[in-house]
Amino acid sequence: ATPISVMVAVGKAAQTGILIRKGDALQSAGKLSCMILDKTGTVTQGKPKVVSIEGFGNFSETEVLQLSASLEAGSEHPLAAAVLAAAEEKSIQPQKTTQFKAIAGHGVEATLDGRRVVFGNRALIEQERIDIAHHTRRLEKLCAEGQTPMLLAVDQKLAGIISVADPIKADSAAAVQRLRELGIRVLMVTGDNPITAQAIAQQAGITEVRAQVLPQDKAAVVKELQAQGETVGMVGDGINDAPALAQADVGIAIGTGTDVAIESADVVILQGSLLKVPEVIRLSQLTVKNIK
Ligand code: ADP
Ligand code: MG
What is the domain-level CATH number for residue 284? Predict the structure, then answer.
């Protein structure tokens, strides 16, 4: 039978926007030694915005935005939403594409007016053997500011860069500090590049970062830490995070998490506040103390 103190704590948590979906999560949360935070939507606000557009060669900024938006119309990624919003703001209509393909953790590609168009991160463009040597310093500068630059290539030539910013949540740094005070090792995991990841982590006071982790590999990071003897909590918001949430000792879905992420979570935080994460741990520690 569920001890009364757990039921009381579950009720108390619900009043503050913390849904404990599995009763034993409340007992496990207090034993966590390590907390993995997803970057986008967990540490950051998760509402990326386009902050700069550059066109190269014959490509104007408008063309760069139109081509990118045309590709992103087929994607459900938060970065796609940012590009589409920027296009709409300038009344740019996305065009029809064929042979659309989303490449997880990298970007999108399609054919448009008989041209091969690729849009995504540096790794994706370099895989296409497109020379970006002239732009690496610029790209690294954008990343060091915590932005995520996306590159557009048309017929094997670099056509432009669209850079997106997704600032950290107002309470991310406080939440990380609180977790530390509770004796918890904090890591950030992301599919984004290492320079951007490092810049965002630094703003939030996180010292351990795993970057360029493909969506399907996030669960492997959880496993790796468990193999090191850690009891691992994972906080994420995206559909990509579901396997990692399921693998974690305690999976916490945050914010407007997709149905899938919520399904695989032990705990759901409704209002997106990262400060609720240390609150779950403290509540658990108090509850376990009461049971004993
Ligand atoms: P996250 O961990 O932030 O959810 P993902 O693993 O989904 O990141 O993607 C990793 C990186 O791949 C992104 O930072 C971006 O550079 C690139 N990328 C992924 N999807 C897209 C897309 N639809 N359009 C442009 N770039 C993308
Ligand atoms: Mg994500």
Answer: 3.40.50.1000
pTM for the model: 0.91
- Give the tens place of pLDDT for each residue, 97-129: 999 999 989 999 999 999 999 999 999 999 999
Domain boundary among 110, 142, 165: 165
Query: Residue 235 Cα, ligand 2 centroid: separation in angstroms?
Result: 11
Task: Give the Å distance between the CA of 288 and the centre of ligand 2.
Answer: 32
Residues in contact with ligand 1 by the CB-under-6-Å rule are 39-40, 72, 75, 77, 79-80, 105-108, 119-121, 148, 150, 190-192, 215, 238, 240
Say if residue 68 is in the same domain as residue 110: yes
ipTM of the complex: 0.96
What is the per-residue pLDDT across 63-77, written as a single tens digit (0 to 9) for each?
999 999 999 999 988
Q: Cα(5) to centroid of ligand 2, in Å?
A: 35
Total domains, the chain:
2
> What is the span of the domain harbouring residue 216?
4-45+168-291
Q: State the closest ligand 1 atom to the C-alpha of 241, by its place in the atom list counted from 1.
A: 4
107-112 sheet: strands from edge to edge: 49-55, 157-165, 148-154, 115-120, 107-112, 98-103
pLDDT over 70 (residue 89): yes
Tokens of 105: 């953790």
Per the document, the length of the chain is: 292
Q: Which of 36, 65, 75, 79 to mutate to test the pocket of ligand 1 (most atoms within 8 A of CB)?
A: 79
Q: What is the CATH number of the domain that holds 64?
A: 3.40.1110.10
Final residue before a domain boundary, out of 165, 186, 217: 165
Q: Which residue has the tokens 């984004």?
A: 192
- Using left for φ > 0, alpha for ψ between -120 and 50, and beta otherwise, residue 34 falls in beta
- Please indicate whether residue 24 is annotated as part of the active site: no
